[in-house]
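Dear H.,

Thanks for agreeing to be a second pair of eyes. The structure we're designing against is below in token form, covering all 211 positions.
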């Protein structure tokens, strides 16, 4: 379908895959171009189709969704990874963001929220869960340093945006609180996500030099 957002669904449960495909088929502007039951299969399909979006479960047989995300981003940096999972394990979710995930939603959300999340992600809009923002603040020193020239250093404004996000503020409320536009708020969140992805890739290269 010309002009549609191309999607690959990755989940080892047929009921979930069938449900997502059936729902997205009823929505204008979305096209499921492939389904995968494992991370390895997802990687092959991404290489074949170079989709706009991958809906990625984190708990998969074989390699995890986190590892699949990392490999997919190497193959197709333009492909957006939207984590769609039932897992609420903060460390696992945080690892997915470091691996290159662009958004995270739970399987029990309303279907309308799914299409909104996909569209927002494709258009470069960033939404971080409060607890993920808090984890970034808490763990940043793990992969950052005190050198102001480091690509992993957070600016004062980025820290303020993360603090407010961690408190559950919406982008609009953050813009009011910091007297900046909503687009500026999104820009800062996007910069933070880019730094997080970069930090995650750097750590992976250091931790697993033989891969």
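And this is the sequence the design step returned. I haven't edited it by hand at all.
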């Amino acid at each position: 379908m010309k002009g549609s957002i191309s999607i690959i669904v990755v989940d080892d449960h047929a009921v979930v895959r069938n449900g997502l495909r059936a729902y997205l088929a009823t929505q204008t502007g979305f096209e499921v171009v492939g389904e995968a039951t494992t991370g390895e299969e997802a990687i092959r399909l991404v290489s074949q189709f170079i989709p706009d979006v991958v809906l990625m479960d984190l708990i998969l047989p074989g390699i995890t969704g986190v590892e699949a995300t990392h490999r997919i981003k190497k193959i197709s940096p333009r492909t957006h990874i939207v984590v769609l999972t039932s897992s609420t394990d903060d460390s696992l979710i945080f690892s997915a963001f470091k691996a290159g995930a662009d958004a995270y939603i739970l399987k029990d959300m309303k279907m309308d929220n799914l299409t909104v999340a996909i569209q927002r992600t494709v258009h470069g809009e960033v939404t971080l869960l409060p607890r993920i923002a808090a984890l970034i603040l808490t763990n940043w020193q793990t992969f950052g340093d005190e050198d102001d020239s480091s690509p992993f250093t957070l600016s004062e404004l980025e820290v303020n945006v993360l603090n407010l996000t961690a408190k559950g503020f919406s982008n609009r409320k953050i813009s009011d609180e910091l007297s900046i536009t909503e687009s500026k708020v999104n820009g800062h969140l996007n910069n933070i996500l880019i730094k997080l992805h970069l930090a995650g890739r750097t750590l992976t290269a250091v931790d697993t030099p033989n891969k």
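Two observations from my side: The chain has nine helices and five strands. The chain has two domains: 5-122, 130-207.

Warmly,
E.
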